[in-house]
UniProtKB/TrEMBL annotation:
It comes from the Bacteria. It holds the Pfam family FMN_red. This is Flavodoxin family protein. The keyword Flavoprotein applies. Keywords: Flavoprotein, FMN.
Length: 176
């Protein structure tokens, strides 16, 4: 499979990026091709709702979404959303990228998917809005969910190292 991983944390060597790294390692070990797009580092504007694309065409914004990510998404078999939990949801940088799916809505359908999130809280309920959102998005786009990893109790930048969540992320990638 060709797997596109969308990472949404500004902490370069932080927890969710570590989960993404472990997932990618597992997927590579299982023989899959991985492309990682850093939604924070790359320049991606929010959807302008100009409808220039008509939900299936060129986007009016010529940024890193259009120039770098779009061709990868069009040919991907699987999408992995990766984010810190920010105020009970996904990071705004990842959400901005998801909103840009609008220009290729049809091409985003029927892919496999996974969700990897990191949060400070140890209560699963804190991630429930993000997980529910991911499921709703997947239902709409006809995605086949292969799994979710919720890294709990991860506050410091390197807390994910050696955590059960990191191992779960690796195993999820390896199981594909
Ligand atoms: C703006 C902001 C909002 C946050 N909101 C939450 C929250 O609602 N619940 C929580 O458990 N942790 C929250 N955190 C903590 C992060 O989710 C936690 O540190 C996580 O491990 C960060 O992942 P990262 O290292 O991949 O950036 C927040 C952190 C920031 C900076």
């Amino acid at each position: 499979m060709k797997i596109v991983i969308l990472t949404g944390s500004p902490r370069k060597k932080g927890n969710s990026n570590y989960l993404a790294e472990q997932f990618a390692k597992g997927a590579n070990d299982a023989g899959h091709e991985v492309f990682v797009f850093d939604c924070v580092k790359q320049k991606v504007g929010g959807c302008l709702a100009c409808d220039f694309c008509g939900m299936n065409g060129p986007c009016s914004q010529k940024d890193d979404f259009t120039n770098i990510l779009r061709p990868q998404l069009e040919t991907a078999d699987m999408i992995v959303l990766v984010s810190p939990i920010y105020y009970y949801g996904l990071s705004s940088q990842l959400k901005a990228v998801i909103d840009r799916f609008y220009a290729l809505n049809g091409s985003m359908r029927n892919k496999k998917s996974a969700l990897l999130v990191a949060m400070a809280d140890t209560n699963n309920a804190t991630a429930s809005s993000a997980v529910d959102y991911y499921h709703a998005l997947g239902r709409y786009l006809g995605w086949k969910n292969v799994g979710e990893v919720v890294g709990k109790g991860l506050w410091g930048k390197t807390d994910a190292l050696g955590s059960p969540a990191a191992n779960n992320a690796y195993e999820l990638g390896k199981s594909l």
